[in-house]
Design a protein that fits this description.
single chain, mainly beta, seven-stranded antiparallel β-sheet, 14 strands, 42% strand, disordered N terminus
Amino acid sequence: MNTKMKVLALALLGLAGYAGSAVAGCPGSPVPPWTAAPALGGTVAIVAGGLDGSACRMESALTGDSSSFATVEDDTPTAEPRYRAAFMINADAVNTLSAITGVFVFTASSAAGGNPPISLSIVGDGAGHVFLSYNVVNGAGALVGSAQLAAGANHVEFDYDNGTSAGSPGPHFSLWVNSNTEGTPTFTSAISATAVVDTAFLGLAGATPDYSGSFNGTAVQFDTFDSRRSSFIGF
């Protein structure tokens, strides 16, 4: 396998209805390279109108309590010490989130269990602004922080590296929000980590109780997911 965890990931996602494709219409549900679309108290749908101007996008909505989830699952990673991923998100429909109202939008987990190496969520400030928050395994604790999303579609990319892969520049976590230049991440920090990535979930999960009470049935939009071992993805 080369530096991409998904061979021709964007093209394949295009056939799945995420990136541009020549396929007429949009499939009703995700197809390979996604391995599953787990949902409990929520829905995942592929609908017309891609966030990058292509044919289709994914919409995830929760309809249950805080235990609900509606995601797509990628089992392509295999004990990856370095994991890079990118996707687009439009959270305008929930831009009245408060600072204590949030929901996970991406999680990378390890087959070994324990806390997920990377979790991304969205929260607000009650004034129409949405923030992408990160929680990254960092020794006995976690590296946490957030970056504001713009209105409309946003490009998100991150690089998680526990420092043990060949050619690694050292253990670190970097995040790009609407930045297309590898050398100027929105945030970057050294970390202390040994966790590896085996599975990724994109979509809504683990909402706070007040999110479930206020935004049940409200869809957040996603598009153009890609993941790699080392090379910058960009847009």
